[in-house]
Amino acid sequence: MGLEGRLECDLIVTSGSHSGFQVPTQTQMTSKLLQVIGVGVAATATSALAGNLSSDSMKPASGGSGGGSGDWCETLQDIGTVYKDKSNPWIQEVKFFGRAHYQVGYVDGDVAGDDFSGEGDELRRLRFGASIKFLNGFKLTGRVNLSRGGFRDTSIGYSNWDELILSYNAGDLGAFEDVSIGYGRYKVGFGGEESMSSKKIKTIERSNLNNYYAGGRPTGVKLGFDLGKVAYSLGVFSATGVDGNAPVVGGWKGATAYMLSAEFEGLGGDVLLQGLYNDASAAEDTVFGYHWAVSATHDTKFGPFDLLTNLTYGEDHNGDAAYGVVIMPSIDLIEDKLEAVVRYQYFKGDGNIAFKGTKRVLERVANDNGVIDPSGNENHTIYAGLNYFLCDHNLKLMTGVEYETVDGGTADSESTTVWGAVRFYF
After folding, report:
1. What secondary structure letter does DSSP report for 355?
2. Residues 3-51: pLDDT tens digits?
3. 255 contacts 279 by C-beta, under 8 angstroms
4. pLDDT of 61-78, one tens digit each?
5. CATH number for 365
6. Number of domains in the chain
7. Does residue 318 lie in a domain region?
8. Cβ distance 381 to 125 under 8 Å?
């Protein structure tokens, strides 16, 4: 199983509130989660007992196990496409899509001898969008974030735009194949895990190493093409990003970023090489974090395992280095149904580079217990989890346990977090 979609080698150079409604209580949100799980399990069991499961298992999505089949699952996967006609010269396709990611976590740990523990839930992602293909090559895609809360807050309502992109696929031009160009508000991923959609990541949260890159939503233009056996893309981005209350697509004041990317097969698997260079000042750069960085990801089969390895090294605007490694093997315990995954991460910062532990639960619970979670410059984590696929990645249940330490600077902490999540998309 390879990295999802097109692997990239990135080179980046950088020279009103809205009202919504709230889900009133944690109990009600948990009840909804249990209802979703119950419906999924019931649908799967009913299909199996009725003999409606397809004799051919669905093809697993790249980058993860598959799972689930039958009429209800196929309906879930196809329901978003409301119109499709390649012979229509004006509009070829209209599609709606969305995702809902709900999770709970319990953490127990200590900071310099001060114990803390607690739990909380979160509507991690709630997004809805649409795309339209028109004029035989153009595509307009937009998606908004509808989760307004955070830890222990499952408020729902318009938050901001996630992405808004107008693209054109020109097809093959001479030796260049599958040529496309797009402009708009992008999510620019850096690192193997960040290059995977949140719909298909194998762990409930990405590693701190991959999350260190800010991953904002800059305005930019991207050009993509295949040449020989390598897939490339070239992008130009604004390093100032787009604030949630700013226009959907921002301007070009200040620094600019350039991206070169390439995908190819090598070393018995899929290779992702990324490079980032950013000459914006620290004050201008609200998107990329690094002054420059390089990252290499290799995804391959190793016996019965799928093995993803990621190495990252970069420097901030002060010349201080940040670097680390992610090693993540996974295996199907039940083909296309039950997957086990383990992830080890080492993350180190030199000089003034400092970071906290996993923020989704650890930092918030520590603060609630009156324990200040200080920043450190050395982070070890090990995660072990199970993923159960009710309908491929479209409907799955995830569990995980993560042990983490943060040392260096003023930090001396360790913690264990237990995760549970339900992930849904169409």
Report:
1. B
2. 544 444 444 444 433 333 333 344 444 444 444 444 444 443 333 333 3
3. yes
4. 334 455 555 689 999 999
5. 2.40.160.10
6. 1
7. yes
8. no
